[in-house]
Write a structure and sequence with these properties.
With 240 residues, this protein is α/β, with parallel strands linked by helices. 43% of the residues lie in helices and 13% in strands. It has 8 helices and 6 strands, in the order E-E-H-H-H-E-H-H-E-H-E-H-E-H. It has a 4-stranded parallel beta sheet with strand order 4-3-5-6, with helices on both faces.
Length: 240
């Protein structure tokens, strides 16, 4: 006859009987184990939150506003402590400023932007990059007009903004090249991962070899005409 004070526990190998004292010891052991597990989880969570808090405290507001002056104008800014659901990083073409994406115009010239409408509806922040020599930075000299120079300036600020929020990239014309170079740096140096989507328009594939790029050497308009004449061809299609 089994005592009412004893209990049976089922294990994979069958029933094992514990005395009341053993059962009490086992309970304390499990409770202690859970306490340690919870404490470890709490410490890890606290460490992660501390990193995120430090990240937001480290934001250089002057540099941020210089690179993304149109955020407030766009109507997509999300104020702390609320976080945006998404960040949309935009690169305009060489002849335009960042307001290509952040300004819908006024009065009769106002044209509703589907991109801004999307961002406002789904609480996504639109960060359109202002390049040197354009818009609010028109007086800044661009002594070394290289894509890598621009990327080195943008990457640290953007890396901080993208660590805790998913992002997509939009590039138009030369902005496509900038976008691809920037994402490569964010992945390799800052471990920010891949964008959710890439939207690129009106530019040759940035991954093509240098010799095949249309603005290099024999691939220029004049170079293509010369190649066509040398090969005995007629019109190149550039003279029409």
């Amino acid at each position: 006859m089994v005592s009412f004070k004893a209990r049976f526990y089922f294990f994979s190998r069958g029933f094992v009987k514990f005395s009341p004292r053993e059962k009490k010891t086992e309970k304390f052991h499990i409770r202690d184990k859970n306490k340690k597990k919870n404490a470890r989880f709490y410490q890890e969570a606290k460490k992660k939150m501390s990193v995120l808090d430090q990240h937001h405290q480290r934001r250089d507001e002057v540099a941020f506003k210089r690179l993304f002056p149109g955020l407030q104008r766009s109507g997509t800014q999300i104020d702390a402590p609320e976080r945006p659901s998404l960040r949309v990083i935009c690169f305009a073409n060489a002849g335009n400023a960042e307001d290509l994406f952040t300004n819908e115009g006024v009065g009769e010239r106002k044209i509703q932007s589907p991109l801004l409408t999307f961002c406002r509806k789904f609480k996504a922040e639109l960060l359109s990059v202002q390049l040197p020599g354009r818009g609010s930075r028109r007086n800044e000299p661009w002594n070394e007009p290289k894509i890598q120079t621009v990327v080195r300036e943008i990457a640290p600020t953007l890396a901080n903004e993208l660590r805790d929020v998913p992002y997509v990239v939009v590039g138009h014309s030369v902005g496509c090249w900038l976008a691809v170079q920037l994402v490569d740096v964010l992945r390799s140096k800052y471990d920010d991962g891949e964008p959710l989507h890439f939207f690129l328009s009106n530019f040759p594939a940035p991954t093509i070899e240098d010799k095949d790029k249309p603005w290099r050497g024999g691939r220029t308009r004049r170079g293509r005409r010369a190649d066509a004449k040398a090969s005995g061809g007629g019109k190149t299609g550039l003279d029409d």
